Amino acid sequence: MEEAETQEKRVGILRQHWKRILLLSLLFSVLVGSLIYVFRDILHPLRIDSVPADAYVVPWMSPSPYFEALWFMRKWDIDAVMSEALKLNITFRIDIPNGTRVIPSTVYLGHDKDYLYIGGKFVGMGKNPTTTATFTPSNYFGLLLDVANDGVLTFPESGSLLSVWVNPEADLRNETDDFRYGVVSSYEDLVWTRSGERPGQYIWLFGRDYYSPKAQPGFAVRDYDMGYDKYTETVIILFSKFLWHPATSEINALQMRRGERWVMRLFLVLGYDVWSPPYEDFVDGWPRKISSYPYMSNDSSWWPKMVIDLANPPANLTT
């Protein structure tokens, strides 16, 4: 009997011992985790920029409907999808053979906690800029960012380029034609990096060309969609760009953390991608006209500023 009681006491003492060890281990884990966050914030503090008076503040928003639903819709209205976005009314003037093409445009910008949403409506852009009936250049829209907002482009910076082809042979006169009938699109990441062909020079390089041939690039854009309004000859594009994603860290300088507020510089380009002699794009930029690609100057001091604020999410927004 006494031996059984002694054994039970030993078991009880052993249990108490392991309970203390477990409790101390939990407390130690909490302490280590807290220290990691403390040191992280000390070594890598949140970036919270002051908002300049002349900056464009990109609003919090959710596309409605969301991108996945657009693919199942015969036609969608970008003004409805991006109703809460910042709208920039821009007139691009693209020099083409025998004149200048004037493109009244609207660019839409919005964001939630995960994505920057970019949309564009370009009236008259779908028409062929040349007189060659068999030649179909792509229409492209590009967004370039000076993420550090220091007026000088440095690696890696972040850019996106969406191209849309409108097939001139498609029967766009038929009223039953789908919104995307005769339209093909592609997307490219752009990264400001050293040129392999021009030693010592930096250029906006396609993300897929930045990687080695065997590497699998992680796209900085999650979703995109496009359309063509055949009656107004209007190209319409929409895409979402990661604000943070580890797979895109090498080519996408947008690696924002929760609670941060970034002021960045913004530049927009619109043009026709010409792949025949003399191999020069027909292109314009905003806020200043440009005439060449890949825009080799690293001077971004004149680019407008825009703000993405993840530090103050609205309480009523589902993100």
| Contiguous uncertain segments of 5+ residues | 34-40
Note the total helix count.
4
CATH architecture designation of the largest domain: Sandwich
Work out the helicity level: 10-25%
On the 0 to 100 scale, the average pLDDT is: 81
Query: What number of domains?
Result: 2
Q: Which outline best applies?
A: elongated
Q: What's the total count of β strands?
A: 13
User: What is the CATH class name of the largest domain?
Assistant: Mainly Beta
Major sheet description? 8 strands, mixed
Give the termini distance in whole angstroms.
66 Å
Question: Strand-residue fraction?
Answer: 25-35%
Helix and strand content put the structural class at alpha+beta
Instruction: Indicate the radius of gyration in whole angstroms.
Output: 26 Å
CATH topology of the largest domain: Immunoglobulin-like
H-E string: HEHHEEEEEEEHEEEEE
Describe the structure.
By secondary structure, the protein is of the alpha+beta class. The protein folds into 2 domains: 1-45; 56-309, Immunoglobulin-like (Sandwich), CATH 2.60.40. Helices cover 17% and strands 35% of the residues. It has helices at residues 2-43, 67-70, 78-81, 207-210; strands at 56-57, 86-96, 99-111, 115-123, 138-146, 158-166, 183-194, 202-206, 221-229, 234-242, 261-273, 282-286, 305-309. Strands 1, 5, 6, 7, 8, 11, 12 and 13 form an 8-stranded mixed sheet that branches. Strands 2-3-4-10-9 form a 5-stranded antiparallel sheet. The chain is elongated. Residues 34-40 have low confidence and may be disordered.
